[in-house]
Amino acid sequence: MMLYDCSKLEERERGITAAVEAVQRGDLIVMPTDTVYGIGADAFKSWAITALQNAKGRDRTQPVPVLVGSRQTVDGLVYGLPAVARDLMEAFWPGGLTIIVEHAASLQWDLGESGGTVGVRMPLHPVALEVLRQTGPMGVSSANKHGQPPALTADQAREQFGYGVSVYLEAGETPDPVASTIIDVTQTRPKLVRAGAIPLEKLREVAPDIEVPE
């Protein structure tokens, strides 16, 4: 288990390299995002995703969302992307918006009982983006055990996960620890699943017909 201080340039480079190698091995890492710290694994290594769910104390009924390092990456993950999804990505990525889409049936991954859909997001954090651009898509969930508050630093995450995680990337306290907004675009109308970092009125400027549950 290693913790790297990403505020120091040399240590940041070493930490990112170590994190990428850990993900490629199928190990778990903790990294900063623009919302809260995330615990992550290679999205295409099912045993790594299972380890992530076990570390959090969650079961397969809560599928793991996926973080990507670029908008283009999504094209390789989905069967077809509705125009409204592209508009939302253009407006709010990188940033605090998770979009639920239908993933391509050919993908060799197992993120839990997702019913053929996946929540994807491109985070607005330089450390996370640097890792993701080298690892490819990662299954990432908030860095906390089930029922505990999300970690706002890598050190807080280490207190919860200890040696269950190989590499911790510390980038200081999350400035705005609000969970991402979640929009489902798998139906005819986009639907708000969870209010969060991106306010509804901003979303409606791009997708005026967003459905909001009672």
From TrEMBL:
Give the UniProt record's GO annotations in the biological process aspect.
regulation of translational fidelity; tRNA processing
* Major location (coarse): cytoplasm
SUPFAM superfamilies the record matches = YrdC/RibB (SSF55821)
The GO molecular function terms of this record are: ATP binding; double-stranded RNA binding; L-threonylcarbamoyladenylate synthase; tRNA binding
- Return the broad EC class: transferase
Q: Which InterPro entries does this UniProt record tie to the protein?
A: DHBP_synth_RibB-like_a/b_dom, Sua5-like_dom, TC-AMP_synthase_SUA5
Q: Which PROSITE patterns match?
A: YRDC
Q: Which NCBIfam families match?
A: L-threonylcarbamoyladenylate synthase
The top of its lineage is:
Bacteria, Bacillati, Actinomycetota, Actinomycetes, Micromonosporales
PANTHER family linked: SUA5 (PTHR17490), THREONYLCARBAMOYL-AMP SYNTHASE (PTHR17490:SF16)
Q: Which family does it belong to?
A: Belongs to the SUA5 family.
Span of domain YrdC-like: 13-198
Q: Which UniProt keywords apply?
A: ATP-binding, Cytoplasm, Nucleotide-binding, Nucleotidyltransferase, Transferase, tRNA processing
Query: Which Pfam families does the annotation name?
Result: Sua5_yciO_yrdC
Q: What reaction does this enzyme carry out catalytically?
A: L-threonine + hydrogencarbonate + ATP = L-threonylcarbamoyladenylate + diphosphate + H2O
Location(s), subcellular: Cytoplasm
Protein's organism = Virgisporangium aliadipatigenens
According to the UniProt record, one GO cellular component term is: cytoplasm
According to UniProt, the name of this protein is: L-threonylcarbamoyladenylate synthase
| Enzyme Commission designation | 2.7.7.87
